[in-house]
Amino acid sequence: MEHIRNFLRGKGFVLALLACVAAAAAVGVWAVRTVRDQMAEDLGKNPSQSITGEETFPGIDPEIQQDTEEQLWEQESTSAAQSVADVPESSSSGASSGASSGSGSVSEPSELQTESPIASASAGSGYTRPVSGQVLAVWSGDELVYNETLGDWRTHNGTDYACKAGEDVLAPVAGTVESLTAEGNWGVVASIRDAEGRLWRISALEDAAVQQGDAVTSGQKLGQAGTITGESALESHIHLEVLDGDKYLDPVKLIGS
């Protein structure tokens, strides 16, 4: 018996501590169960969330709430469809309707150009390309350009159109032949005065088919393409100028490229 008393006396503290831990655990379990039961009771009386995780609102019939949400979705979809319908449809013609031939821009001459439209009256313009070839050199305005034939810098007062030697040259505009005059390096120059008082000068013309004082129509044959010795470094071409008083105009802006 004395041996048992000595054992209990030595282990008494440890046993007391274990008893306290067991009691604390029991109290904790009881508290957790009490809180869980109370929450379950509260959720049964006034649920705030369904078992599916979808949000509900106290005092509102779930069916009414669902109908309201569906109406809201339908309204948003209708609004989006309306905004799309108001966007203008793209047109394939828009890309090709950029700058027209009368916009003031001029196509730069290029050796890559190989084909040009046949000389014909521009639609609704009353003007005609004098020959069918490509543009070799453009009107330069006040800018000086280098003349390879003469080896100097000067303004280029007209537009050069490529053509075959001896090709028919057509009147670029209706009017009256004011003169047929040989002008040195430019050959025979045919000058036509149009109804607006502008003077159209075509160099160089050979075997003229018209005479001074003749009334000509746009596209009428004036003669055949000759040689312009002042621009012989270029391939065979005719040189066209347009004068409004003493001011040179860009022929391409009037006739089109």
The CATH topology of the largest domain is Glucose Permease (Domain IIA)
- What's the SSE pattern? HHEEEEEEEEEEEEEH
The count of helical stretches stands at 3
Total strand count, please?
13
SSE layout and pairing:
Blueprint: H1 2-45, H2 62-85, E1 135-137, E2 144-147, E3 152-155, E4 159-162, E5 168-170, E6 175-182, E7 188-194, E8 199-203, E9 205-206, E10 215-216, E11 221-225, E12 237-244, E13 247-249, H3 251-255
Antiparallel strand pairs: 1-4, 2-3, 4-12, 5-11, 6-7, 6-10, 7-8, 8-12, 9-11, 12-13
Structure overview:
It is a single chain. The chain is α+β, with helices and mostly antiparallel strands. It folds into two domains: 2-77; 107-255, Glucose Permease (Domain IIA) (Distorted Sandwich). 28% of the residues lie in helices and 23% in strands. The protein has helices spanning 2-45, 62-85, 251-255, and strands at 135-137, 144-147, 152-155, 159-162, 168-170, 175-182, 188-194, 199-203, 205-206, 215-216, 221-225, 237-244, 247-249. Strands 1, 4, 6, 7, 8, 10, 12 and 13 form an eight-stranded antiparallel β-sheet that branches. A hairpin with a 2-residue loop joins strand 12 (237-244) and strand 13. The longest helix has 44 residues, at 2-45. The model is unreliable at 47-58 and 72-124 (pLDDT under 50).
